[in-house]
Amino acid sequence: MDAGRGRSENIDPADQWVLNPNTGEYELRLSPSAPQSPRSPQSPVPGPRRRPAPGPDAGTARPTAVPGRQVPPQRRRRAEPEEPPGRRGRRPGKSKAKKALLWTGGTMAFVLLAAATGGYLYLKHLEGNVDTIDVGDAGASSFKKDEAFNILIIGTDKRTGAGNEGYGDKGSTGHADTTILLHVAKDRSNATALSIPRDLIVDIPECDATLEDGTKEPVSGNQGVRFNRSLGESGRDPGCTMRTVKEFSGIQVDHFMMADFNAVKTLTTAVDGVDICLEHAVNDDDSKLNLPEGESTVEGEEALAFLRTRKSFGNSGDLDRIKAQQQFLGSLMRKMSSSDTLTSPTKLLKLAEAATEALTVDKAIGKVGTLKDLALELKKVPTKNITFTTVPVKDNPAEVVKATVVVNETAPQVFDMIKNDVSFTEVKAQEKKEKAAVAARLKGTKADASEVRVRILNGGAESGSAQDQLTYLQTQAGVSKSENAGNADAEQAKTTLEYAPDQADQARRLADIMGLSGSALKPGESELNAQGLPTMTLILGKDFKGAGVKLNASSVKTPDVEKSTADKVECSG
């Protein structure tokens, strides 16, 4: 290991952690006689070693003593036998150790940056593992914990690290081989991981390249080229890739995280392998993957081979490889958050080392405190509400022999959903909020449909939706006092109904007809209709599903795209 980026060769980080019987938490301990001043990451940190594997009396074993403190006799803890190598034991019950370490469970591999819970010196050491790049105004200047955010996760094909000489393109500076845009919702109830095909035809804008001495120089853009060229070529750095994503999608990327082949090998080894499933046996000459049909556990070189396999899945294209990668990441997330990982200080520390050594990030999130904050925010998202999908594409019509793809007609809706922080999954937390809002705003009497006065505007729905909804209300719902008021001043994600306080009974009736939630009802002011009478204003947003279709679901009707969630086990084939 490079002396400037790792710990001492002879020190296992787990040996620096002991159980404090007064708190029930694992803590990083230094020598009790030495002042706790900063040490260099290379210097061994003195402290007691881990307790040995328990013997027959493990049920009554005492914890390792903390130097300088007396262990109260009434605070005994049961020592749990360590799992024999290569065997799977049953999950242990919740313990204080698990509670102390629970917050470190990652939603993704990079979440493990927060694994060293109490040790400032060790956290600073982890910070030294991480490389940073200044992307300027291509990203955010800081990480905001109370906002939605977008992180571009980039896997490069650069041949760095032992054993990687045969992978990727020889002499490549590292292209954007695997790219995922991770959108995390403002309320942390859901996230969307949007895969970007490397063969997607895009326009790469002019951007800065980072030279070897760290200086920047401008690089001209390219029109109609593969997306993977946005990184590495002509010295383009991740800031160029971030700008390219905004160019074709309109989505502002806040931060990036980049890793190479080594990341897959070290992370999967640190968690003792990742479970994958195959619809049929695979023996791929190119990737060297050789696995039977059904479930297998892969790590290290074999895990990398799985992610690089293309010709053995589907129609042998990059889009089918992306599906396998998404299933792999979902399995990795489940492994990260399992009790076997969360209750093992040794495993957590190995993951922290592996994750940080594999990462390059933007300067805005390169500090240890920021990485910890980011990890904690990511951890809040339930795996069942993390949606994996891919930029909707079609074959490039300009090609006779199909080798690249372009965005299709559905892509703008997918991009808009991410920009407007709209979930691709139904979220229970949001359902509870909606029900509470309905109870507060919809409670009371409802006017007769014939007494409802409403003007309808199109604020982002499909063209003609205002007229279609007007026809439905007048001919099928009995709302005869309604009119089409044209287009709204601006588009909006959600359908809303604004009404004056004395029109609450009318609002409740229209909400019942259309399935509007409490949050869609906006107490405010009325407008005058063509007859000069006070009228409510209904604006059809991008979530409008069609005339007569109720809007009482917790998420919009998602476009027809293939998707999966991180909590589901799926097989590749």
Task: Describe this protein with a few key phrases.
13 helices; alpha/beta; 573 residues; eight-stranded mixed beta sheet
How would you explain this protein's 3D organization?
With 573 residues, the protein is α/β, with parallel strands linked by helices. It contains 13 helices and 26 strands. An 8-stranded mixed sheet has the order 3-16-11-4-5-6-17-26, with helices on both faces. Strands 20, 21, 22, 23, 24 and 25 form a 6-stranded mixed sheet that branches. The chain is elongated and about 75 Å long. It starts with 16 loop residues before the first strand and ends in an 8-residue tail after the last strand.
Q: Strand order across the biggest sheet?
A: 3-16-11-4-5-6-17-26
Number of helical segments with 4 or more residues: 13
Ends apart, CA distance between termini: 38 Å
Q: Assess the beta-strand content as a share of residues.
A: 15-25%
Low-confidence stretches: 1-19, 24-119, 163-172, 553-557
The radius of gyration over CA amounts to 28 Å
Share of helix, binned: 10-25%
Number of strands: 26
Query: For the residues shown, what is the average pLDDT?
Result: 75
Rough outline: elongated
